[in-house]
Amino acid sequence: MDEGIIAMLVMPLVIFMIFVAPIWLILHYRSKKQVNQGLTVEERASLEALAGQAEKMTERIQTLEAILDSEAPQWRNRA
């Protein structure tokens, strides 16, 4: 093989190994560490608040559907 072709193949690999691979590894293991730590207190509180809001919305939707069922029984068939 020609030395120019070998250099064209080796240079991108060297650049990848020097610059991209270390950054990639650092970011990968940093994200793994964050996942393993679990939720923070703020994240857990936010998640519980959102779950509470979702329950309230579910109850409201069920109430609205019950009202619509009694006042306009065919509302579900409308497009």
UniProtKB/TrEMBL annotation:
Coiled-coil ranges from the UniProt annotation: none
InterPro entries (UniProt xref): Phageshock_PspB (IPR009554)
GO term, biological process aspect, one: phage shock
TM region(s), chain numbering: 6-27
Pfam families per the UniProt record, alphabetical: PspB
Tree of life domain: Bacteria
Annotated organism of origin: Alteromonas profundi
Protein's recorded name: Envelope stress response membrane protein PspB
Record's keyword terms, sorted: Membrane, Transmembrane, Transmembrane helix
